[in-house]
Amino acid sequence: MTGNGRHRYLGFTLVEVLVATSIGAFVALVAIASMKGASTTVRLVQDNSDRAIELRFAARRLAMDLTNIVRDTDPNYFRLEVGTEDSGAGSQSYLTFWTTLHQKVRQGQPEGDVYEVSYYIADKGDGQVFCRRVWPHPDRQVSEPGGVVTVLSDQIALLRVLCYDGERWLDQWSDSAQELPHMIEVTLATKADTGGMALSESILVTVLTASEAQALAQAQSEAAAQEVQATEGTTQSTTTQQGTSAGSTGQTTTGGGR
Fold this sequence. Notes:
It is a single chain. Strand 3 (114-124) and strand 4 form a beta hairpin. The strands form 2 sheets. A 5-stranded antiparallel sheet has the order 1-2-3-4-5, covered by helices on one side. It is of the alpha+beta class. It is built from 2 helices and 9 strands, in the order H-E-E-E-E-E-E-E-E-E-H. It has a domain at 54-207.
């Protein structure tokens, strides 16, 4: 008790405690919300990065196979089939062709260098997966081809294949066709993220048939032969000029000795 008869208390009043608690709770809520937002952003960035990596891997694998597609003048020695089929996510394309691979699918077993490769989207459980089937021993007489199936990605939700026949783009190409298309375009798209955005990548491969490749090689050979002939002609002309110059020099020297 002080001298004036009043008590002096040390501490906070109830109102001060309530105010401090409210401010502390507000700051904590703001911090938690900021941390949650940052965590969500990091997760979205990581998910987009993973989807982009899977998309690029699948597109690169498909592009390598298409680049090495088998070309031949005999339709019995090449194959290409493009079509569409309904799936859980609507109409999807599928792609089957013969290609040249230099890596065995099944180690320790005899295999050639021509394989049948198929790309398609299959339903699996509650989602879809992008698959690649490789058959080491392709045979047109087999009604149910086999092979090794590999799931390339569970993030790809769209496969669209178009073939250019020289005049128009088609989403169908029959296996009974006697030739290959001029170009093949493949578009892959991933599933949409929480914001409704989907990643996509397109592949455009120019297909040279065997006859076109032979014509191109012949044209290049003829161009090389013409270049060699032109070079030889230039060399002969230079040699002739040098001989003429040497003869003129000899006459001048003889004349000077008289």
